[in-house]
Amino acid sequence: MQPWPTAYTWFHGSNNTHDCRIIIHGLACDRPFVEDSCPGTVLATESELRVASGYSTSVRIESLQPEGKRRMSAEDFVNGFRVRVGDRFTNSNTPANV
User: Fold this and answer.
1) Quick check: pTM over 0.85?
2) How far apart are CA 65 and CA 14, in angstroms?
């Protein structure tokens, strides 16, 4: 439990085994991209966790905390939750059909 307000989202993996609430602890604005992706769509997982944020921009998530877990780096999250390009972060616990 955090004593201060936090930003959170819901993660929906492509295998639907890891739908969970995520607290975002650190992120950075990232470069514009050309792809036509819905906000919340994972764009890259190789060397960074890059997520579409709207208007052809993206953010790079640096640290986060899955519900019931410890705070972790984006790299640990990608490896542990097997995040793939195309997975989604949304504003509800119901996966969006895109």
Assistant:
1) no
2) 19
